[in-house]
Write a structure and sequence with these properties.
This protein is an alpha/beta fold and 596 residues long. It contains 17 helices and nine strands. The chain has two domains: 229 residues, Rossmann fold; 205 residues.
């Protein structure tokens, strides 16, 4: 089996080298995508990426697989930077920065670089962290990748996770036993559906449920996943927290009860029998897409070379109109998005108005009730305690508002993005079909997607009640009035302050929510500016080459056509060779499954 893997890998590397040779002959730069595939094959590494919504226990699971708490974990969203673990005989920790530099740090210093607390919003511009660790679990050449959770309070964490999806070979998707699979999780799964042939579905935190409840939540999630088109053989129930405790204390009974041994067995079986095929198939798919794109560009360049002057000018004129129409469609969508932004902000305004109308009388009533129930408290103490009542009631009211608002606003924005993403893909598809008809070529599918559509986090800021100034306190202390009258003055004073306190919090909440809405939609709109840019660039490059040869004269056209014919023939043969390798890899896998 190992010999077959080495043979097929060698065949794929030969295909890559041949494509690189063609690219060099064409005086182009080496395709970065080819280099990436080549480096990945040569590294003999395999990325098992741990994915899931925030606070599902991804970091704790990784620590339990390693057998030691080497990655920091927390009860709040913590991981903010992708962290990669690789086997080594010695412990080594490197931080790679966005500017290409890197530094070696102690394991204890990781918190300062990969966590939200130590590196908020990744202000240190860390690209990733790589840890080498002497763990038996990593000995088979697997890289274990910890990602920030999607859908957390921090939008940049969601974006970081989605940016890494192109690098996964297999995924371990972690769900939680205490909640059903969420919309955020479904959206993430939709994104990775075409990125990997292997997903392990794991249900964490089973220590919070009894066996019947575990079976019920597993069955529910399995049904949801199958409705989404996933062939789910099993959902593995575990308690990463109990497993980590068991490994640290060498408690074999606790480890067995945690369910981790079943997961480790499934992962080891996969690494022994399936890993190689996944690596090969992923490489073949990527190279095949690159080859198809290059063949499309050759075909367009041929059309440019062979067309008469009038025919070429007509084609170019039509193409320019297509590009202009695409750009106009982009501008129209951006304009409509601005209207959607205004609409969502107006919705916030309406919700806050309703909140203010209900919270002011409710908070006042709470103050009155507290006053009536505490008739024996002296005025100074009463004032302090009633201030605390206002603070607690405002936080309570705004907590409820936050939950309602997050759901409404997030769902509205999600619907907006879904509509506009669908519309954008229809536009790019129409452009692609028109270009294919115009140049009589077949092009790879193009799809517009925006990671921000996955974000669900909109949080408000609570303005804490400001304590009275010394002067205000003194003014009460100087009041030589009967206790009952002084208490009444305190009540009236604080009742009068409730509307301004509620209004102040509404203002803070309004600013926070509308800022987040506008920032999110603006970011989406900016990404729309790139709609179709890759496809346009691909066509324009081919046209430009053809025009350059035409200007060089008929002999140059003849030489170029002969070269393109050889190039087309070679690429087609290489693509066919990839198909043969694909069939050999997957036929062997089917035979192995039947044998087992």
């Amino acid at each position: 089996m190992l010999e077959e893997f080495i043979k097929h890998k060698s065949e794929i590397l030969t295909v890559i080298e041949n494509i690189e040779t063609l690219t060099k002959e064409d005086a182009d730069t080496i395709d970065d995508r080819l280099l990436s595939v080549k480096e990945h094959l040569l590294s003999n590494c395999f990325n098992l990426v741990i994915l899931g919504q925030f606070k599902r226990g991804k970091t704790t699971l990784i620590n339990s697989l390693i057998g030691k708490e080497i990655l920091p974990s927390s009860v709040v969203p913590l991981t903010s930077v992708v962290t990669i673990l690789k086997h080594s005989g010695e412990i080594n920790c490197n931080i790679y920065m966005q500017d290409g530099s890197n530094k070696t740090v102690r394991l204890e210093e990781l918190t300062d670089y990969i966590t939200e607390k130590g590196n908020p919003k990744n202000i240190k511009n860390v690209r990733c962290a790589r840890i080498q660790y002497p763990s038996p679990f990593l000995e088979k050449g697997m890289l274990l990748v910890d990602t920030p959770g999607v859908g957390s309070t921090f939008l940049h964490n969601t974006e970081t996770t989605y940016e890494f999806l192109d690098h996964l070979d297999a995924a371990l998707f972690l769900m939680s036993a205490d909640v059903p699979i969420s919309q955020v999780e479904k959206e993430l799964l939709d994104t990775i559906k075409g990125s990997t042939q292997k997903i392990f579905f794991v249900l964490n935190k089973i220590d919070n449920l009894n066996p019947q409840e575990i079976e019920e939540i597993s069955a529910f999630n399995k049904h949801v996943l199958e409705e989404m088109g996933f062939a789910v053989q099993e959902i593995l129930p575990i308690s990463a927290r109990e497993a980590l405790k068991a490994k640290v204390t060498n408690n074999e009974v606790q480890l067995s009860q945690s369910g981790l041994l079943n997961l480790e067995e499934a992962l080891n079986r996969f690494l022994s029998l399936e890993k190689g095929n996944i690596v090969l198939n992923t490489a073949i798919s990527k190279i095949s897409r690159i080859t198809t794109q290059k063949l499309s560009q050759i075909a367009i360049e041929k059309k440019t070379l062979l067309a008469s002057g009038e025919e070429l000018e007509n084609k170019l004129d039509t193409f320019r109109k297509l590009v202009a129409n695409l750009k106009q469609d982009r501008e129209d969508i951006v304009y409509l998005l601005k209207g959607e932004s205004d609409k969502q902000c107006q919705k916030v305004e309406e919700m806050l108005k309703t909140l203010e109308e209900t919270e002011v009388p409710r908070t006042k009533q709470c103050l009155q009730d507290f006053f009536d129930k505490n008739s024996g408290v002296n005025p100074t103490a009463l004032r302090d305690e009633m201030q605390q009542v206002i603070k607690e009631e405002i936080i309570k009211g705004f907590d409820i508002f936050r939950n309602d608002t997050e759901r409404v606003i997030s769902n509205n924005i999600q619907d907006t993005f879904s509509r506009f993403t669908k519309r954008s893909n229809n536009i790019i598809q129409e452009f692609k079909i028109a270009a294919e008809i115009l140049f009589e070529v077949v092009m790879d599918p193009f799809e517009f997607s925006v990671e921000l559509t996955k974000d669900k986090g909109f949080y408000y800021m609570v303005q804490e009640y400001t304590a009275p100034t010394d002067e205000e306190v003194k003014s009460i202390l100087r009041t030589f009035l009967p206790k009952s009258m002084s208490r009444k003055m305190v009540l009236n004073e604080l009742l009068e302050r409730v509307p301004s306190d509620v209004s102040r919090n509404c203002g803070r909440t309004r600013y926070d929510l509308t800022s987040r809405i506008r920032k999110t939609i603006d970011h989406y709109a900016k990404q729309l500016q790139n709609l179709g840019i890759d496809l346009i660039s691909q066509i324009e490059q081919a046209i430009q080459k053809g025009q350059e040869r035409r200007r060089a004269g008929s002999e140059s056209i003849r030489i170029e056509l002969e070269f393109l014919a050889r190039k087309t023939k070679t690429l087609a043969e290489l693509k066919e060779k990839l198909t043969h390798v694909w069939n050999a890899v997957n036929l062997a896998e089917v035979k192995q499954e039947r044998f087992n």
